[in-house]
Design brief:
The chain is extended and about 105 Å long. The longest helix has 48 residues. The strands form three sheets. Strands 1, 2, 3, 4, 5, 6, 7 and 8 form an eight-stranded mixed beta sheet that branches. Helix 11 packs parallel to helix 19, helix 15 packs across helix 17 and helix 17 packs across helix 18. By secondary structure, the chain is an alpha/beta fold. Helices cover 55% and strands 7% of the residues.
């Protein structure tokens, strides 16, 4: 299965933008990864929230005791409190403490998705206590005094009503709730607004800023404070033991915290180090994936071109380097002439009424352009698009356009088919040229004389790919470039012969199918090889070599080998294609018909009826034999027992009538015919 990192997935979009309240701390990563600039937009109203310094306790137990006392004191005042934790376990622990003290509270820990929005919306009510894990926006504002609209909607739902069914009653209730919320808003504002308590610092400053940002919306007052302990994960990693030893030497009791701006700055520096380390990990992963990303783009672009039946190669200079310009492929006039009557026949089939002109000999012929101009409208456009794609490999969209008369669609499909088949044919010839060039490069090294070249390997490789042996005169050639031209000429002759044998359109259709199959097979294997390379490439560092550079080099070599293998496999399979003879076609059709008859007889045998059992059927064992109950007689106008929903006479009854196994039940049809 193909994989891609989020970073390279987002890079596929031509335009990238986003909006969040906490991106400023990650501005460097946005710039490095996506070349995006982060701009801070000032708040709509001045932010008057107070962000207090962190307090650090010696043990986690003392920390929880202190923040619990803080929660209770503000709850008694009626001030709403929001507690933010870093894990579900910490949320549950605080909830258990509050439950023991019989204090009403709400918990947000991603266990009740449907209720979370309403819980968050009411977190600003007087005396509310909300405990949340990794508190972010949840898509809902915390309004001081409560969210009147959500309260009114909840009350309506409890009464079994909806605002849509009782709009006047809902409007009256909403006005009443808004008045209550306004009074409560003023009370909570006088108390200082929403009180934010953080139980510990997260590894990322963004998460802490998200928690703080829940208070102080639209100029409201608010307050935030973080309670930490030396047993927290972040404190243990960065200087936890040193601070603990210092507190022990100073004789500080466990319940006395450290509170100083220097402590808060030190913790932010620790968070910054963790963020930098995580960014380095993501950057390192991205650098490895960039190697796969370049290969991924090449393979998927090639595959998409094959599926669409197009080919747009780049021009190359004398040294074989790409110039960046697209090579123009002329339309093959013979291909266009062969396609003309076939396209006209296809368009005529989808006209309403269908065009079925006949010639002087009474046989069906293709419609002319004059007849297409006079034809009616086109019908079943989706089927027409499908037939055009399956026949010639060209994709056209007819359902979204206004002008789709038969003559316009005919000219457009003919142009697409002519260009598409010409480009596909050019792709085959370019592939042939690459394979021949690789064959000569492998067997004719420039540092050896012509008589020392591997002529046996050249003949064997050519015959393996093209199923013919080149002329013996090529053994007299001493120039590698001239040898490539001669072998290409022989290969092109073999291709033209195969084209005459199978037919140009059928051969190109087989070529596209084989190419896509070969790409899929090789790409899956290549992904596995790259994964194995990635697993062990780190060991190159012990040899004083950069693992990333080694991964790029070996990954590139694996990719080149995969593409060469695909080209070789496609040519080998293409020249193995051959048309079926009449006797082979007859045998295939007979086999398919026999299989169909067997399936049909098995289906009919399962129906309840009074037909005789099949003579060839093996007798049942004695202990398994049972007397079957008499089956009900099936009338011709009854529903078929197979479950198709059709009448029996138009389903399996029609097949049995052709075999003479069912008699006509004239008495059943008599009333219908009367």
């Amino acid at each position: 299965m193909a994989t891609i990192t989020f970073q390279n997935l987002f890079r596929l979009y031509k335009k990238l933008a986003g909006m969040t309240g906490t991106a400023e701390t990650e501005a460097h990563e946005f710039s490095e990864t996506y070349k995006l600039m982060v701009t801070a937009i000032p708040t709509n109203k001045p932010n008057i929230r107070q962000d207090d310094h962190d307090v650090v306790y010696k043990t986690e137990r003392e920390k929880f005791n202190a923040l619990t006392r803080d929660i209770l004191s503000h709850h008694e005042e009626g001030r709403p409190v929001l507690v933010g934790t870093t894990s579900v376990e910490k949320s549950d622990a605080i909830a258990r403490i509050l439950k023991k003290k019989k204090i009403p509270h709400s918990v947000l820990n991603a266990k009740h998705h449907q209720n979370e929005a309403s819980i968050v919306a009411q977190a600003g009510q007087k005396g509310a206590i909300t405990v949340s894990t990794n508190m972010a926006g949840r898509g809902t504002d915390i309004m001081l005094g409560g969210n009147a609209e959500m309260i009114a909607t909840a009350q309506f739902k409890e009464a079994g009503k909806t605002p849509e069914s009782h709009p006047e009653e809902y409007a009256a209730l909403l006005s009443e709730v808004q008045a209550k919320c306004k009074v409560e808003h003023d009370v909570v504002t006088d108390l200082g607004g929403l009180y934010i308590i953080g139980t510990e610092r997260h590894e990322s400053r963004r998460i802490d800023n998200q928690l703080r940002g829940r208070a102080g919306r639209q100029g409201d007052p608010g307050y935030s404070k973080f309670y930490l302990s030396l047993e927290d994960d972040l404190m243990r990693i960065f200087a936890g033991d040193r601070v603990k030893n210092l507190m022990d030497r100073m004789g500080m009791p466990d319940d006395e915290p450290i509170e100083h701006p220097l402590v808060s700055r030190s913790i932010e520096n620790a968070q910054r180090k963790v963020e930098e380390r995580n960014f380095d990990i993501r950057k390192n992963l991205l650098e490895y994936d960039d190697v796969m990303n370049a290969q991924r783009k090449t393979v998927y672009t090639l595959r998409q071109q094959l599926l669409l039946g197009r080919y747009a190669p780049e021009e190359h200079d004398e040294n074989g380097k790409s110039t960046g310009e697209i090579r123009t492929i002329p339309v093959d006039e013979k291909t266009a002439e062969r396609s003309r009557p076939l396209v006209a026949q296809l368009i005529g089939m989808y006209c309403d009424p269908p065009l079925q002109p006949t010639g002087d000999d009474g046989k069906y012929r293709a419609p002319t352009q004059e007849e297409l101009e006079k034809a009616g409208t086109l019908v079943e456009l989706r089927s027409l698009q499908t037939d055009a794609y399956h026949t010639w490999g060209v994709k056209i969209d007819l359902e979204t356009r206004r002008e789709r008369t038969p003559i316009i669609v005919y000219n457009e499909i003919l142009e697409l088919v002519s260009h598409g088949l010409s480009e596909q044919r050019e792709r085959v010839l370019d592939l042939l040229d690459r394979v021949v060039g690789a064959m000569v490069e492998e067997n004719c090294p420039p540092n050896k004389q012509a008589e020392d070249w591997d002529w046996k390997g050249i003949h064997q490789g050519f015959k393996e790919h093209f199923r013919v042996d080149p002329d013996a005169s090529v053994n007299e050639i001493g120039d590698a470039d001239f040898l490539v031209r001669e072998l290409y000429r022989f290969g092109e002759t073999a291709f033209l012969a195969k084209e005459q044998e199978i037919g140009p359109e059928m051969l190109l259709r087989a070529f596209r199918r084989l190419y896509v199959e070969s790409i899929d097979e090789a790409w899956v294997e290549h992904l596995s090889n790259m994964e194995h390379l990635r697993d062990g490439i780190g060991l190159r560092g012990y040899g004083q070599r950069d693992p990333k550079n080694e991964y790029k080099k070996e990954g590139y070599n694996l990719f080149l080998n995969m593409m060469a293998k695909i080209s070789s496999t496609v040519l080998v399979r293409l020249f193995e294609e051959r048309p079926h003879r009449q006797d082979e076609i007859a045998a295939i059709e007979a086999e398919a018909e026999a299989r169909y008859r067997a399936e049909l007889e098995a289906a009919v045998a399962r129906h309840p009826g009074d037909s005789d059992p099949t003579p060839e059927a093996a007798p049942l064992p004695v202990q398994a034999r049972r007397t079957a109950p008499p089956a009900p007689k099936i009338g011709r106008n009854d529903l078929c027992p197979c479950g198709s929903g059709k009448k029996f006479k138009k389903c399996h009854g029609a097949i049995l009538e052709e075999e003479g196994a069912v008699d006509d039940d004239e008495t059943e049809d008599a009333p219908a015919n009367a």
